[in-house]
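User: Here's a chain of 338 residues. Predict its fold as C-alpha cells.
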Amino acid sequence: MLLVLVVIPGALYYIFMVRNTSSLVVEISPDNSYEAVISLDSKLTNSWLPLLDRVLSYEKKCTKTCTFDPIPPAEYQLRITRSGSNDFSKKIVALSGEQKIQKYQLTPKIDLVSVSWDQNTLSSDEKSLLTDDVREILGSDATVIDRDKAGQIFVFINTPSGSDVGTFRDATFRRIHHFPFAIRSAHYDPKNQTFIITSKQSDTYVSTNQFDNNIKYTGANTVVGARINNAQWSVLTHSGVEKKQGSIWKENIRFTDAIDLGSTYRLGYISKNDTNKLRLSNYPTDTSKLLLLDRSSARVIPVNSMDRDIEGIFLSDNSVYAYDSDDIVYKIRIPFSY
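Assistant: Prediction complete.
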C-alpha cells in the first residue's frame, strides 16, 4: 500500500515534473474583454491512477493568452469556455521537453430568440374600404398605401405637379413629401419600414418611412423590399439582394439577402429556393441557410436556425431579425457590438 500511495506517485512526480517537463501556450482569438476559462485534463494514466490524473490537471482564466508551465509530457483534453462563444474542446499531446504553442479561433454563439412582432399592416379588404373613405374626403386621386406599426395611415395623392405623400388622420391629410411625378402604385415594406414607389412612367423609387431619404432604382429587376443601412441603400428583388455602388446596382452573388454589421461582419441568408447560391457554397438545396461572414478573415460561421424554415432577414432599430414561413419573427442575438 505504501508503494502505491507514496513511492509510485513520488517517482512519477520526479520523472514528469522535474526531469522532463513541457510547456503549453494557448492563444485565443478574437481578443475581447470576456475572460476565457482554459482547462487541461490529464490523460497521463488512462484512468489506472485517477488521483494522479486529477492532480496533473490545470485551469486558468485569461482574455487572450494562457501559459501552462511546467506540465508533464502527456495527453490532455483541452477545453475553452467563454461567455458569448461556443465551447471548444480538443485532445493535444505535449512531448517531453516541448514548448508547445496552440492558437484557436473561437466562434461566437449566435442565438435566435422568438419575439412578438405585430406589423399592424392593413389587409387587402381593409385597404380597399379605407381607400373608399379617404377618396370621399380627399378626392379620387387619393390612394391608401398602408398602415405602419405606430398606426399611421399613409396616403398618396396625385396632383397636376406630381404626387403628395403623407399621413391621414381624423379626416385630415398631412403632407410629408412631394414627388415631381405621378405615382402609379406604392408598397410598404413593414419589416424594413421603407416604401417602394412606382411612377406612372414605370420608374421605381425607394424611400424611408419619413420620406427624408429616397432614391431611384435603375436596375432591371422588380423590387419587393428595400433597406437603408449605414446610409447605403439595398433592394431585395426576386433574384436576390442588390446594393447601390456608385451609379450601379450590383447583385450579391453569394447571398439571397445580406446585412452588413459594421465593417467586419455580414449576416447572410440563402433561400432554399436559391439553389444556385446554395450549390456555390456547397450547401444542401433543401434548407435555407443563415450565416455570419467575418470579412476580415473570410471565415463563415453557421447560425443555428433551430430547424426553422427561415424565409428572410431584416434590420430594425439597429438589431437584426429573421422570420420563418409562419411569419414568426426571431431576434438574432449576436454576442458583440457592431
